[in-house]
Design a protein that fits this description.
transmembrane helix, SLC26A/SulP_fam, SLC26A/SulP_dom, mainly alpha, 4 helices, SLC26A/SulP transporter domain-containing protein, membrane
């Protein structure tokens, strides 16, 4: 969508429905939030995939690397 602004083709966005734009923005927010889990939890070994299932499975597989949790107690 940013390329449309650079090419002065932003009027094309007017033809997309509001639901489409909101869905696109919400999906982008979810992907960015999931990728921030690596830094938030301090996980060293993390997936490079962007899907929700690979990211969440990577978090659960490497839960022993999460900062602040001690499973020995």
């Amino acid at each position: 969508m940013a390329s449309l602004g650079l090419l002065r083709l932003g009027f094309i966005i007017d033809f997309l429905s509001k639901a489409t734009l909101i869905g696109f923005m919400a999906g982008s927010a979810v992907i960015v939030s999931l990728q921030q889990l690596k830094g938030l939890l301090g996980i060293v070994h993390f997936t490079s995939k962007m899907g929700i299932i690979p990211v969440l499975s990577s978090v659960f597989e490497h839960r022993e690397e999460v900062r602040g949790f001690n499973y020995e107690e």
